[in-house]
Amino acid sequence: MGKRILTLLFVLSLFMSGCVYHNFKGMPDGTDYAGETYFVSEDQVSFLYDLTYQENGKRIADQEIFDTMFEHIEKAQKYILLDMFLFNKYMGKEDQSYRDVCGEMTELLVKKAVVDSVTIDFITDPINNVYGGDILPELTKMEEAGINVIITDLDKMPDSNLIYSPFWRTFIQWFGNSPEKGIFPHPFNNGDKITLRSYLRLLNFKANHRKVFLADYEDTWAAIVTSANPHNGSSAHCNVGILIYGDFASDLYFAEKAVADFSEKELSVDMKLKNDPQGELRLKLISEHEIEKHLLNEIKRTTKNDSIKIGMFYLSDRDVIENLISASNRGVNIKIILDANKDAFGRKKNGVPNRPVAYELHKKSNGNIKIKWYNTHGEQFHSKFILVQHYQEDDALILGSANLTKRNIGNKNLELDVQLIADDDTEIMQDVREYYNLIWYDENYCLDYHRYYSRSLFKTMFYRLAEGLGASTF
Fold first, then answer.
1. Is 351 in contact with 343 (CB distance < 8 Å)?
2. What's the sign of the alpha-carbon dihedral 185, 189, 193, 197?
3. Cα dist. 68→114, 224, 229, 466 in Å?
4. Residue 235 gets which letter from DSSP?
5. Which of 379, 405, 383, 374 lies closest to 473, judged by CA?
6. Contact at 8 Å (CB) between 37 and 284?
7. 427: which residues sit within 8 A by CB, 6+ positions away?
8. What residue segments make up the domains of the chain, in order of their start?
């Protein structure tokens, strides 16, 4: 009897060791990717943003990201590809959405597929069907219209949660999941019920977090990389994006084909990769850990006369924090606009990680790193971009889906950004600076650092431990 127990324990330990391997395995082929440099002209790139603010007690939203995307969906004649993280009408505890962006996109894509016979691939994250525990009507409607819907296979990616995921892979994953009605409250939609298995899969804390669009446009391609989700609960969030015309779309296609491939699905067309130089601006696709590599390279190259401007929903990555402090100590002018991490779809958050991170940056730079909080009123400052202005070199803009956290730029999530290198007098760089200055200097948009910073040792330890173990949502 004792030998049987020892044998069982030995086999179980071997199996658990195999499951621990998933925390440290590499990313699937074609991800953690840095593309070729594309040379584009000024008229091929445009800066986009959604900006929400209060004026005389009323919420006002200036939006152009999805308006621009929908315009290009309308004009597509042959092919559309999207990869969108949050795509649903769920509202959390909010009573109503600012905009039915999910419904708009669904109806428009169905029309293009059915009426105009446009081929469409739609990649998304399983969070939208609660990891198989719910049926999302919008996805069903698109599938019935002949749209190729691909749910990303997150199990092929490294696990994020160091403590929980080995246990889940060993004991729980075998039970699968189904959209049968459970007894547990739906985490995103009040009133509905789901199974316990949905919650148990959710606790792995990883995602296909990308927000990508491409479509044929006249005799070329149009692409948008953004921080914005077509999600009703997010429809009032502040976001940024970049519109790109030309061959760069083929590199986006290559990056998205990798997601379809490891999810054991196929995209509907075979785009041929091209890279015909058309200008002096340099554009590169960067995904996953390559985002951090390229960002740190830009920060490390800064000198006394350079400046860094950041707008970020989450900032907690240790390498980024330490390099920002070092850059400040070299005399680099650094300004950061952060979300106060206080609101999430009608629920209150505890300010982690941004508030203790802001305190650390302010303290260790002797107040030289200037920090402000976007003045949100229930919505989120969901933008994710970094502008590095080099005094004697071209500026660098990094923009897309990635927060500056271990999960987002440490090969746990799927993320996609673009890096644009251009002279500071080009139109897009001027537009980014004007946008930043608009919100930085106006109290309608931004609040002083002292409004929300936190010296709490508990919050600091909590976010450091949670991020280190991969047991956080940021």
1. no
2. negative
3. 22, 9, 14, 37
4. T
5. 405
6. yes
7. 42
8. 35-262, 288-469
Separation CA 151–CA 147 (nearest Å): 13
DSSP one-letter string for 278-347? -SSEEEEEEETHHHHHHHHHHHHT--TT-EEEEEES-B--HHHHHHHHHHHHTT-EEEEEE--S-EETTE
**For the segment 398-446, what is each residue's pLDDT rounded down to a tens digit?**
999 999 999 999 999 999 999 999 999 999 999 999 999 999 999 889 9
pTM of the model: 0.96
Longest CA span, the chain? 78
Question: How many other CB atoms are there within 10 angstroms of residue 306's CB atom?
Answer: 22
Cross-strand partners of 34: 286
Tell me which amino acid residue 380 is. Q
Q: Quote the tokens at residue 252.
A: 């986006």
Angle at which helix 101-114 crosses helix 137-144, to 10 degrees, equals 10
Q: So what's the pLDDT on residue 334?
A: 98
**Per-residue confidence (pLDDT) for residue 274, from 0 to 100:** 83
Confidence (pLDDT) at 6: 66
Superfamily assignment of 35-262 in CATH?
Answer: Endonuclease Chain A (3.30.870.10)
For 214, list phi and psi in degrees, rounded to 5: -150, 150
Number of other residues whose CB lies within 10 A of the CB of residue 234: 27
Residue-wise pLDDT for 323-340, tens only, equals 999 999 999 999 999 999
Closest-CA residue to 278 (of 102, 25, 41): 41
Peptide bond into 353 cis (omega under 30): yes
Q: Give strand pairing partners of 335.
A: 309, 370
Proportion of the chain above pLDDT 70, given as a percent: 97
Q: 């949050």: which residue's tokens?
A: 86
CA 140 to the chain's CA centroid: 24
What number does CATH give the domain 288-469? Answer: 3.30.870.10
Identical topology for domains 35-262 and 288-469: yes
Buried b (16+ CB within 10 A) or exposed e, 11-23: eeeeeeeebbebb
Q: Is 442 helix (H, G, I), strand (E, B) or coil?
A: coil
Arithmetic mean of pLDDT, 450-458: 96
The confidence score (pLDDT) of residue 346 equals 84
